[in-house]
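User: Can you predict the 3D structure for this chain?
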Amino acid sequence: MPVQAHHPAPTKHHPEPPKHHPEPPKHHPEPPKHHPEPPKHHPATPHKKMSYTIQSGDSFWSIAQKLGISVDALQAANPGVNAQSLQVGQVINLPGGGNNNDNDGGHQLPHDGDTIPGSQGGSNGGGGYVNYSGPASNFPDRSEWASYSALWDQNSKLMKFNDSDAEIGYIHEAIEQVSRDSGVDVRCILCIIVQESGGNPRVGSTNNGVRNPGLMQSHNGVEFNPADPKGSILQMVRDGTTGTRDGDGLKQLFEKYGNYYEAFRGYNSGSVDKSDLNNPMGATGDYVQKAANRLMGHSWPNM
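Assistant: Here is the predicted structure, written as structure tokens:
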């Protein structure tokens, strides 16, 4: 686009260029050469490219990272696509109007706004327990979930039974940071923390062949360290969300199954009966059902 705003108007004492002189004066300034170009590493803006062709090695996670969008937004734009069986040459939809600063892979503290997946929109929650059952399609859509602010208000009150105000603050920061870094919906991280430990960082480990410690009862991850409460809380949330060397976290399981409900069953059981998510598969039968009720902002005795 021509640069016009900085072109100086002729001063009154300066004669106008002769009418017979067809070219602009040689001293006419060119646009500044230091005008910055967009950084070469800056991800493409999704609203300029509304489809994407699958390449070798692609997953929803890698595509989201490449294009600066969230995994949630990509999944929502492709409701009929199985994220587990992408084929080279397959064309998928891209969400429009994305913020190409989202999910840039950097480990920086989050801030309020849509840089935190799942932090925008949602209902006010409320209501009683619902006995969801069957396949993932029978469970509430993400658009029906309660808002992050409503869920945080509800669940942080439960944390007060076991946690100091400082510890609750550390959990809050960790959930948002890990959500931004991983692309996992912040509401899912919060609700699985409450489901696994009640938000108590000092909860004991379980061991049914695999040691499950910490806030998210991860696969052989870290435990609470009273000498480093903030750091150990952050690592516990990372272990449950992005996995450990011994097991998958929510991120890998969402990529594998393509929806959060089957990811929850995989996280709890290690395997999934897609036709019946209340099939415990050797673990907790109502695990996915309770997670769905938490995400809806429902309440019930002894939740």
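Residues 43 and 199 are 36 Å apart (CA to CA). The beta strands are 51-53, 91-93, 206-207, 211-212.
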